[in-house]
Amino acid sequence: MVQWKTSRWNVENVDNLHEHPAIQEAAMWMKEGEVIAFPTETVYGLGANACSNEAIEKIFEAKGRPSDNPLIVHIAEIEQLEQATTTWSETAQKLMDAFWPGPLTIILPKNERIAERTTAGLSSVGVRMPDHPVALALIKACGLPIAAPSANRSGKPSPTKGEHVYKDLNGRIKGIIDAGSTGVGLESTVVEVSGDVVTILRPGGISKAQLEEIVDHVKLDEALFESGQVPRSPGMKYTHYAPDAPLFLVEGNHVFFQKVIDQYEAEGQKVGILISNERAEHVTANVIKCLGSSNQVEDVAQNLYHQLRSFDDTDVDIILAEMYPVDGIGEALMNRLMKAAGNRMIADNHNRD
């Protein structure tokens, strides 16, 4: 592919974003069909004109992303919905009122303006309004709906810092708007609305419990638990979020966790572990990466991708990761960990926590 000299604009703690030269230049390039990485409140996105097949093809090329994986379309204000869809239900409107701007993507019927490559040929499109001033300023400056998957090479951990994007995509995209670390650290929740039933296609920054505060009927899509399904949402197919070394989830108490570590080290393998602060006090390994307190799962989720990426700067042969309860954002956290591990798990069937 064409090797760009990738521009990197720093806009952290900048006032008057709408008038900032970096925003204006990036918007100009996007209107000309180029790809720009930018921050959202979840992770960094890789944005291009959602109405142009040619622009969207550059996203797939830069990421090395499978072409049957649909992209999420980002808008900056509710009036832009008409650029992406033809209609939406009363239930969908309730969700928009409650969670937009924010980490919720709603699957809607796509209109004729949205490119076929954006939706991977599907008749529906995922739309969200990000809760980040830089993202909103950029989208408004473009005046276009912007398709934006996570700004990483396909299969790698999603980027939560501008430096992550630069490491993955320098020379492959036109520019990066760097505004420091993102907030939530996990991608948006993706939902489909049918009547008054809301189905979660991908767990994310909005939990099932939060959705249930707004609508009465919320369920998890069966495809989350089955392989080989045609993806209706990003993150539903292929191994995602994986570091270079193979990762296994360990289900069991700290004594069992240490036993697993010792077994691999006895085989001559250098072991890295991805654990909470509390468990770190009870186990030892060659490389230890702490995600935060298990009592603050939001912090664990926010740190996940950064710490997964940090293992690539070590020489570990294998990574063992702690598991977490699937309550609240823990549901999305475990979804990402299972994807990163390719569903590989080591369980203590005799003495579980």
UniProtKB/TrEMBL annotation:
Pfam short name (any one): Sua5_yciO_yrdC
Catalytic activity of the protein: L-threonine + hydrogencarbonate + ATP = L-threonylcarbamoyladenylate + diphosphate + H2O
Domain YrdC-like: 20-206
Gene3D superfamilies linked to this entry: DHBP synthase (3.90.870.10), Threonylcarbamoyl-AMP synthase, C-terminal domain (3.40.50.11030)
Main location: cytoplasm
Enzyme superclass (EC): transferase
Keyword list, A-Z: ATP-binding, Cytoplasm, Nucleotide-binding, Nucleotidyltransferase, Transferase, tRNA processing
Subcellular location(s) of the protein: Cytoplasm
Record has Transmembrane helix as a keyword: no
Taxonomic placement: Bacteria, Bacillati, Bacillota, Bacilli, Bacillales
EC number of this enzyme: 2.7.7.87
Source organism, top-level taxon: Bacteria
Its biological purpose: Required for the formation of a threonylcarbamoyl group on adenosine at position 37 (t(6)A37) in tRNAs that read codons beginning with adenine.
NCBIfam families: L-threonylcarbamoyladenylate synthase
Name of the featured protein: Threonylcarbamoyl-AMP synthase
Protein family (similarity comment): Belongs to the SUA5 family.
Organism in which the protein naturally occurs: Pseudalkalibacillus berkeleyi
